[in-house]
Amino acid sequence: MIESFNKKELEEKIDQYVNGQLSAQEVDELWAELIQDGYHLDYLKSVANLKAVIERKREEEKSTNKKEYWYYAAAAVIALLIAVVGVMNISTQQQSSVEPVSSIELDYYRSGDGAISSSSDKEVIRNAIKLANTGRENEAISLLQSELEDASEPGWIAELSLNLGSLHYNNGNYDNAIEHYERVVSHKDNENVDVLMLEKAYWYIGNAHFHLDQLVDAKTNIEKAYELNGAYRRVAQSYLNALSD
């Protein structure tokens, strides 16, 4: 009988009961003993409560683990999607997302050491650029336009036209810019109109058409800049690839 169990044996029986390891008869014998033993009845309650707490914690951990698993799984999926979309966007940008040049930096015709080059020291152009760089673009345009009206030498006409085109381009007057750049191209056979000047003219004509959403004309002129095989070849190639998509 259970009455013959000592304290240690009784506590073992309580642990077995709580863990569902006793038969129905053994359970009845245990309760018969515990009704007369307040200490071990409290012990049973403590063990039972502890087991309940443990079981609840286990369930919470399982639930948490499941939530964490799904959280991290979802996070992994989201990260993967972001990575894939990012690669797609980068790929798309590299292949087809180009924009026309927003503005043109006006040159000061300096030589390699930073000094003003005497071979290209055109005072009127330098003055016009100074005006433009201080926000007086209209005065700069008027100055060059006046000089252009009196010009007769093809190389000088081309140089004035190139700068006028850039001034109009920076003001967003793309039609006027195209007109001046095309004047540069019209003098391409003159010995004083070098390859770089022609490249710039074709390149910026193409970009001006790009701003006007005239993509066929844009591509045609950028191709001409590319074919000159000079300083603008590489950038022209990237634009041609994009405009061909």
From TrEMBL:
Keyword Transcription regulation part of the UniProt annotation: no
Membrane-crossing segments per the record: 69-90
InterPro entries, per database record: TPR-like_helical_dom_sf, TPR_2, TPR_rpt
SUPFAM superfamilies associated with the record: TPR-like (SSF48452)
PROSITE patterns to which the protein is assigned, alphabetical: TPR
Pfam families in the record: TPR_2 (PF07719)
Gene3D superfamilies per record: Tetratricopeptide repeat domain
The protein's name in its UniProt record: Uncharacterized protein
